[in-house]
Specification:
The chain is mainly α and about 110 residues long. The chain is built from seven helices and no strands. The chain has two domains: about 60 residues, no CATH class; about 50 residues, no CATH class.
């Protein structure tokens, strides 16, 4: 919304720090109203996601692979958990190609 209407870009961290007064200065009334609603929705979903993660993680025994997976950019708690649970014991794959095939990828 900021890029489209103002022609500038800000980071997510900067966006999260915006106060209502900042938004009112950036946009005209209707756009400010929508921007505030968008930020409210994002905050609500962030909180919901954290609650889901907490609930799920409390029910699963984590392996060391869980922490290793999270070191990969773009892999958070839930995706790491999904991969950990789907893969199981990695040693069951005799070759890299077998694992790639299981993931729906063919090795090059």
């Amino acid at each position: 919304m900021i890029t489209r209407n103002l022609g500038t870009r800000i980071s997510v961290r900067e966006m999260e720090k915006l106060a209502d007064e900042d938004i009112d200065r950036m946009f005209e009334a209707n756009q400010a109203f929508m921007a505030k609603n968008h930020l409210s929705t994002i905050a609500f979903l962030d909180k919901t996601i954290l609650n889901i993660e907490k609930q799920v993680l409390a029910q699963v025994r984590l392996k060391k692979e869980f922490s290793l997976l999270q070191t990969i950019p773009g892999i958070g708690k839930i995706l790491a958990l999904t991969i950990m649970l789907e893969v199981g014991d990695i040693s069951r794959f005799k070759k890299v190609g077998h694992f790639s095939s299981c993931c729906g990828q063919s090795p090059e």
